[in-house]
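Incident log, structure service

09:12 report received: a user says their structure output differs between two submissions of the same chain.
09:20 pulled the input from the user's history:
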Amino acid sequence: MRPPVRYLRTLAAITLGFACSTVCRAVEFPAKPLEDFKSEDFRTRETAQAGLLEWSRKNPGIAMERLFILSQSADDPEVRERCLAVLRELIGDQYLKEGEGYIGIRMQDETATLPDDPKPRSVIRILQVVQDSPAHLAGLKVNDLITGLDDRIWRDGAASQFFMQTVREFKPASHITLSILRDGKAMDVKVKLARRPLFADNPFLDGSQVDLEAAEKAAKEAYFRRWMDARKARE
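09:34 re-ran on a clean worker, output below:
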């Protein structure tokens, strides 16, 4: 006789809860950095903070909650300050993973006939590669022809519009594969997308050049404040 569905669901929930509690007990927040934060030696405190950040990035779910609590309630002000600094880095990591995808090129539309495709195809010529952008880090070059993105190609219309729309639909840190034609040679280039920066849509403000670095910093700080406010509201 088969057990009722409700019984199976209850059993699954109990099993999942037991597994989660086992994992949580297995991964414990490290105590040594907290002790080292109280050291009189500045280098010891700095090393402890770097080590705690490294551990926290491997265990962000556990770390963010614990760091928030310590940043608000630890007796030692040095512990509060350094836990808040590590938490800020984790929230910054989260900020960079949200938003739209970004590749970092300036481009123009062209039509080309490829060696393995007799039908004309809409392609994209790269006119500029933004320094330190995902495109730059992936090795894309000026005059490369983008002939496809993953399994997508373009026959009609402006390929650049479809291309940028698709890129923006990806989350930051997503990986895409571009089909490239460089000096007549076909190749695939893998690109890890970044978070679409503010200047990509708003390069000017009131006719003058925006301090882009300051604008990005302000946006990141606003994200941090929203996260902190939302967490405090749960208290």
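09:41 both user submissions now match this output. Likely a transient worker issue. Closing.
09:42 reviewer note: Strands lie at 101-102, 105-114, 117-129, 145-149, 175-182, 185-192, 194-195, 204-205, 208-209. The longest strand covers residues 117-129.
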